[in-house]
């Protein structure tokens, strides 16, 4: 597919030098602790995440913590926030504790940019996860691509419509998350992709608040208002559970299919069992991103490298693939013990 | 009326022209049930706004959608009638839902036992709220705010902020099946309403609820067991949260410890107040709450049907709630 | 002896409200408990009623030692109390209030039929027209008091405590109450009766006990003492000239009311008031006097009619303008409308007149303090600290705070609604003189009262209201209890 | 003292045993300021629990962190003192923050003008709240609940639920720079506290606030302009929300229309109540609120420093708030 080129981008800039230079600057206390810690090989990593207000984020928090626990030489400090200001405060506290590295999933890109600058100022390597920042002043970015998710969902939607109706045309329903940047980016990616297909009409776009219950109610009502629906774009797998239930209740399973996002176990299960309505794709958006961030942080602190990047340092930019999981490849990804 | 001291009614009749008993009745009715008029107006507007609104399927769907918050709002009515408030119901729903699902999934309890555990957990949380408020003498607002974070925390901690999905599909019957054309949750809601109505209107306990809310000192001096009445009100509220949890978890056969029930408390309180119950206690009716919840239901239903932008749904809902309450006040 | 209290002490923080009081009540006797405001009468009764626990001392009921830890405990011992303050639930009906906590039941449900029947029976005893299904919030204060009395009687108590039951009752209702008390006495019910209306005591009481400053002073047979003796025992000194001379220096008209109407409350009211004049309003409960005053003051504007203030037409939509123009309104219900109970005494007193103390936007505490001290001294308000919450004062002292409030506000025309309700003789006398002095200084004074003797004692003129209309006018010389009562009952 | 009627002072001396003036003072102090003791205990515990707690950097950070919610809580104190409540402050913070940022970014206003617009917007929202509550006679709870959704909606709608980032880095000075070793937001907080203290304790307006909250009918009959006082209280609350918005947006040089200020109302109300202000109005102090907010600040700071699991932070916070309030009540 055409997003293969943006799947795993690497940017091996010389950021490491920057960090080291700053380390030798006036930054005193944090610096000293870092040195003393690194000498005996144990590090403290600060982890700042949004509060677990829906399933994906819950899994994110848990995976990240589990990863940190796995490393014997790592102590960690995990904080979660409801809003950007609190997250910024949390990070103040982490800097105060003198952590050696920070893994952060910013609630808002713009809002946490000054905070990132401050982390850099304190000479602490920042591993930024999922949402981008408006600065390059961080050690590594592991990207989840929200716009890409919408975009890939758009692709599968068009494919599905062609398969069912013979042409890229049909009536589409969008169930969106809690109004936020994430929601907005996914909508935007989706809309931008289908913009080339004028016969695809979005007949309803309603909030499902990232919960199954709200999506269930919204979808029930939309099903009533629209006698003809060809497909549903669900911005989140948690919500898809509710959407599927609503379609089943209305006994319109045959009529429409769902393109979804998230990579949640329950949705994989549906694909494996082939239940109706059909979920043709769940674009993974792995809640393991935070865990990957922690893992990379340990490597950065220990001065290790990645396999395949022989002799090189950890890249500055890593964008994870927005992998489409479909009934065809789902078996490869399904893990019955996963928490999401 | 032969007596010299004229009673208030006598006075009215004397002064107003003639056979306006109907007018007096209307006034009484309006004072107590004006929310019904607000409901009717909204209902008519909704019917005009969307052709889909008046379809039987939509109406039954709507009823099912409100049943959970409706049940919570009924419990909340008791608490607000005694002059209290319970901000914890949403979190308690998540916690009791977790108890119900975990009992089935992690401890292999039967559906029946799991539900009993859930209801018991709800009663227990209510008991704790009530004890802290009465014996600890801490404001209900702050007690239940603390309980809101505590109950949510407990659920998150147990399930690592994840969801618990049920294995037994029999459990989904409660939330999904129909009986004589109406969804089962609607029956549960109706049963809760009827029992609450009887409790409030026909029993001494109901009188005591109004007495504690109307003037707790006076109630105390009249030997009303205000502590027990207060605790009972919070326990009822906890119980309704648990009943709501059973319906909600049964509907999707899962509970999400992070998002289930979040912000439900605000909708429940809004329904009670729209229904005409006074926030300071002592005045209000179950029927009012029922119509309050119906107003909220129509609102979100019609906004979905008309595909109103999610960004402005909040504004529309807020504005219409204000108008509904304003309409009522013209008495 | 049905009730005996020995060595009772009760402190509130540093205030010793009851100081080693002994008290005995015999079976079938009506025992008056008298004393100045703040003497500790209500506190002593609340101990019997289980509202307060004494710090030390013993209580014996029917010879047995009793620990009365709650109101229901007290009820079980056959004790029933009518509190000084009304204790009713506004949104419950008359009968629900009467049987609150003791609802008759049938299969677990409230037996409303029985409740109504029992209520009607009680109401009949009182010969009243009261709808058992009326909500208490719609009743006048007097009617509410009647409900309180019915509630206490419905318990069929052995010991009945009445803390100033007649303070808000009219003469007619009062005499009904006395008949009832005689009846109860025949049934061997023992009654403790608290009242500041000393003449009443002679009619119905057998014995009396005087408290002063929390201490027991005297217990004796009532026929051996005159009212005057009792009053002296209460204050601990000679008391003379209860009523001052009626003001004579009447000036020009300052207030004229024409055709004032407020539907449901009063109708076509006409009267005028001159400088230096005291005008009394008499009438039964619900005659509409309070509403009339409230309407002129702007608390709840009238529907029709005109009010002229010094010849200028006024129509106050709120009390703010009225107070600026020099109106002052001491309302009849100090707890509901007169005072901010949690506020300090000092802040209550200057609340309407804060403008006076403004200096560059701030309240000038010095001059404020001076004025407050002055009032506390002039009115003899018994307190512990002027910054204590006004709710901890006794009823009478609270009333004085209400008066102080309007005195500080440089008021030119005073509306006193039941100014001596629940006030002891000593304080009453002080207030009569105060009102008279105000008139003599050229202020206009309107006194609304249900106590005929005080209207007869201090007013230049008395208007009688009946059913929302003025039904008679009498000068000081013409007026007598008989004619006022006749007009008040619509004859 | 020659008078027979004993003067107040005489009485005290007569009744209390001896020189316990100190004891009386202590009692008064305890009744009003027991929250300070709760704070001191928590402070000592925190100092023991984490070595990082007592570092100057941590303390100044903590002060900066609380300044926004602190300012909101001060405004909330006025509203709660009159017996009201304002659930909209969090959303109003987002809305006024949007006004400030959009004025700069989309309309090219200077920083100064933008801030003025923001403050004006805050006052305006407060005015609307006040008008609806007084003239519309709608319960404050429901009015501000509606305003909460309306203000959030307006912000979301304007920015398509996104964030607005500032372009002028001068603007970040307010939120980020230090003056004599203390962050600027802390000075703003202190100024707000001092002005509010003076307003409440030294002016007629302050007395009126307490009067309206204590007994609004009696206040009305004492010529207190209760409508104006009520509206003013809500306007102050709106204004403090806007001041908070300026600090917060300046700190991050951006506003997030979806998440800025979310749930701040609950923290602000909790701070006020922990500070000893009675939820029914008429009683409370600014100083109490300041310590209430400090208690909340220490709590979340120490939990971060001690690395307590986020899942149970809610439970710990809830439990400690209850204990703090309980401690106060032992008077
Ligand atoms: N709850 C309380 N807290 C503090 N002091 C109180 C309280 N109740 C009463 N007091 C004080 O106790 C004393 C006795 O008051 P009490 O009400 O018994 O007087 P009283 O004789 O009934 O007066 P009145 O005739 O005015 O009703 C007064 O000094 C009063 O201020
Ligand atoms: N809140 C109320 N709602 C309805 N009716 C009321 C209310 N308050 C008073 N009334 C009625 O208004 C009428 C006038 O009452 P008001 O209190 O003015 O009488 P009054 O002459 O002042 O009597 P009192 O001697 O009790 O002071 C009465 O019929 C009373 O029942
Ligand atoms: Mg008394
Ligand atoms: Mg009256």
Automatic annotation (TrEMBL), chains B, D:
Signal peptide: none annotated. It is a multi-pass membrane protein. GO terms for molecular function: transmembrane transporter activity. GO terms for cellular component: plasma membrane. It comes from the Bacteria. Its main location: membrane. InterPro entries: ABC_transp_permease. The keyword Secreted does not apply. The chain crosses the membrane at residues 30-54, 66-87, 107-131, 138-158, 178-200, 286-305. Keywords: Cell membrane, Membrane, Transmembrane, Transmembrane helix. It is found in: Cell membrane. CDD domains: TM_PBP1_transp_AraH_like (cd06579). This is Ribose transport system permease protein. The lineage of its organism: Bacteria, Bacillati, Bacillota, Bacilli, Bacillales.
Automatic annotation (TrEMBL), chain C:
It comes from the Bacteria. It is a peripheral membrane protein. InterPro entries: AAA+_ATPase, ABC_carbohydrate_import_ATPase, ABC_transporter-like_ATP-bd, ABC_transporter-like_CS, P-loop_NTPase. Residues 3-238, 237-491 form the ABC transporter domain. SMART domains: AAA. GO terms for molecular function: ATP binding; ATP hydrolysis activity. GO terms for cellular component: plasma membrane. It is found in: Cell membrane. Keywords: ATP-binding, Cell membrane, Membrane, Nucleotide-binding, Repeat, Sugar transport, Translocase, Transport. It holds the Pfam family ABC_tran. This is Ribose transport system ATP-binding protein.
């Amino acid at each position: 597919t055409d997003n293969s080129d943006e799947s795993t981008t690497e940017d091996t800039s010389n950021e490491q030098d920057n960090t080291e230079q700053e380390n030798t600057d006036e930054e005193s206390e944090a610096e000293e602790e870092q040195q003393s810690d690194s000498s005996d090989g144990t590090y403290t990593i600060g982890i700042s995440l949004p509060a677990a207000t829906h399933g994906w984020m819950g899994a994110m928090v848990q995976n990240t913590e589990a990863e940190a626990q796995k490393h014997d030489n790592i102590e960690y400090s995990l904080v979660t926030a409801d809003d950007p200001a609190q997250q910024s405060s949390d990070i103040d506290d982490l800097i105060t504790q003198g952590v050696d590295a920070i893994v952060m999933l910013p609630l808002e890109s713009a809002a946490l940019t000054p905070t990132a600058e401050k982390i850099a100022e304190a000479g602490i390597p920042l591993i930024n996860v999922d949402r981008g920042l408006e600065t390059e002043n961080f050690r590594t970015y592991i990207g989840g691509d929200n716009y890409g998710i919408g975009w890939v969902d758009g692709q599968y939607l068009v494919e599905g419509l062609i398969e069912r109706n013979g042409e890229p045309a049909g009536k589409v329903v969008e169930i969106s998350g809690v109004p936020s940047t994430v929601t907005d980016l996914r909508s935007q990616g989706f809309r931008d992709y289908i913009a080339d297909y004028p016969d695809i009409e979005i007949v309803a776009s309603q909030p499902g608040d990232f919960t199954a219950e709200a999506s269930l109610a919204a979808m029930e009502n939309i099903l009533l208002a629209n006698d003809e629906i060809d497909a549903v774009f669900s911005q989140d797998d948690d919500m898809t559970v509710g959407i599927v239930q609503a379609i089943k209740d209305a006994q319109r399973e045959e009529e429409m299919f769902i393109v979804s996002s998230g990579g949640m176990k329950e949705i994989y299960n549906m694909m494996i069992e082939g239940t109706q309505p059909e979920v043709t794709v769940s674009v993974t958006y792995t809640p393991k991103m935070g865990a990957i961030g922690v893992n990379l942080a340990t490597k950065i602190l220990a001065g290790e490298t990645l396999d395949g990047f022989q002799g090189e340092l950890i890249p500055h930019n890593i964008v994870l693939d927005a992998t489409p999981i479909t009934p065809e490849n789902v078996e490869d990804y399904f893990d019955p013990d996963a928490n999401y | 009326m032969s007596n010299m001291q004229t009673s208030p009614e006598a006075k009215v009749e004397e002064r107003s022209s003639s056979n306006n008993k109907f007018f007096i009745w209307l006034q009484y009715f309006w004072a107590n049930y004006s929310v019904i008029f607000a409901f009717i107006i909204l209902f008519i507007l909704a019917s005009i706004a969307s052709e889909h609104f008046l379809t039987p399927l939509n109406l039954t769907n709507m009823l099912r959608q409100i049943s959970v918050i409706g049940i919570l709002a009924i419990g909340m009515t008791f608490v607000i009638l005694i002059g209290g408030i319970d901000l914890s119901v949403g979190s308690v729903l998540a916690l009791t839902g977790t108890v119900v699902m975990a009992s089935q999934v992690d401890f292999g309890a039967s559906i029946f036992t799991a539900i009993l555990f859930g209801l018991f957990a709800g009663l227990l949380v209510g008991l704790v709220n009530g004890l802290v408020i009465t014996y600890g003498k801490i404001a209900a607002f702050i007690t239940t705010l603390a309980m809101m974070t505590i109950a949510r925390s407990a659920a998150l901690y147990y399930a690592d902020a994840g969801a618990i999905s049920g294995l037994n599909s029999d459990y989904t019957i409660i939330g999904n099946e129909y009986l004589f054309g109406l969804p089962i949750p609607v029956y549960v809601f109706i049963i809760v309403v009827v029992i609450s109505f009887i409790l409030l209107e026909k029993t001494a306990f109901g009188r005591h609820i109004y007495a504690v809310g109307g003037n707790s000192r006076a109630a105390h001096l009249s030997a009303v067991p205000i502590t027990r009445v207060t605790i009972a009100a919070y326990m009822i509220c906890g119980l309704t949260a648990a009943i709501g949890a059973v319906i909600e978890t049964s509907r999707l056969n899962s509970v999400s410890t992070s998002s289930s029930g979040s912000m439900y408390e605000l909708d429940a309180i809004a329904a009670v107040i729209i229904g005409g119950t006074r926030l300071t206690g002592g005045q209000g009716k179950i029927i009012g709450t029922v119509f309050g919840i119906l107003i909220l239901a129509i609102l979100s239903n019609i906004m979905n049907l008309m595909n109103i932008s999610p960004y402005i749904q909040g504004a529309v809902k807020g504005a219409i709630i204000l108008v509904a309450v304003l309409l009522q006040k013209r008495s | 002896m049905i009730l005996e209290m020995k060595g009772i002490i009760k402190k509130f923080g540093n205030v010793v409200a009851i100081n080693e009081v002994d008290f005995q009540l015999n079976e079938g006797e009506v025992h008056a408990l008298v004393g100045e405001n703040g003497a500790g009468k209500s506190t002593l009764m609340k101990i019997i009623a289980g509202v307060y626990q004494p710090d030390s001392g013993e209580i014996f009921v029917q010879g047995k030692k009793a620990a009365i830890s709650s109101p229901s405990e007290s009820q079980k011992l056959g004790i029933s109390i009518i509190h000084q303050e009304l204790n009713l639930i506004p949104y419950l009906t008359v009968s629900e209030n009467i049987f609150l906590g003791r609802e008759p039941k049938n299969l677990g449900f409230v037996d409303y039929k029985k409740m109504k029947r029992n209520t009607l029976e009680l109401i009949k005893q009182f010969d009243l027209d009261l709808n058992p299904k009326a909500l208490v919030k719609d009743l006048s204060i007097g009617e509410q008091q009647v409900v309180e009395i019915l509630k206490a009687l419905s318990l069929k108590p052995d010991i009945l405590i009445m803390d100033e039951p007649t303070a808000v009752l009219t003469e007619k209702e009062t005499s009904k109450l006395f008949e009832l008390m005689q009846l109860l006495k025949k049934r061997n019910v023992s009654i403790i009766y608290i009242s500041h209306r000393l003449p009443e005591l002679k009619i119905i009481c057998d014995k009396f006990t005087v408290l002063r400053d929390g201490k027991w002073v005297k217990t004796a047979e009532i026929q051996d003492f005159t009212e005057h003796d009792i009053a002296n025992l209460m204050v601990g000194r000679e008391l003379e000239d209860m009523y001052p001379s009626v003001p004579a220096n009447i000036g020009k008209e300052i207030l004229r009311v024409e055709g004032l109407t407020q539907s449901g409350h009063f109708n076509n009211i006409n009267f005028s008031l001159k400088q230096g004049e005291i005008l009394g309003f008499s009438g039964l409960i619900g005659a509409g006097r309070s509403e009339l005053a409230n309407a002129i003051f702007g608390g709840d504007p009238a529907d029709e009619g005109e009010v002229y203030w010094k010849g200028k037409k006024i129509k106050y939509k709120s009390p703010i303008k009225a107070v600026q123009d020099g109106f002052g309104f001491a309302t009849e219900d100090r707890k509901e409308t007169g005072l901010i109970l949690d506020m300090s005494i000092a802040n209550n007193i200057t609340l309407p007149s804060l403008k006076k103390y403004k200096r560059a936007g701030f309240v000038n505490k010095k001059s404020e303090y001076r004025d407050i001290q002055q009032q506390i001294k002039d009115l003899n308000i018994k307190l512990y600290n002027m910054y204590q919450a006004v709710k901890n004062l006794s009823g009478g002292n609270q009333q004085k705070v209400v008066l102080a409030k309007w005195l500080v506000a440089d008021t030119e025309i005073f509306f006193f609604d039941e100014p001596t309700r629940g006030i002891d003789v000593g304080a009453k006398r002080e207030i009569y003189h105060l009102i008279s002095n105000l008139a003599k200084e050229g202020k206009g004074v309107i006194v609304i009262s249900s106590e005929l003797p005080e209207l007869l004692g201090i007013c230049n003129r008395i208007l009688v209201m009946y059913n929302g209309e003025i039904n008679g006018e009498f000068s000081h010389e013409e007026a007598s209890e008989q004619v006022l009562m006749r007009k008040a009952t619509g004859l």
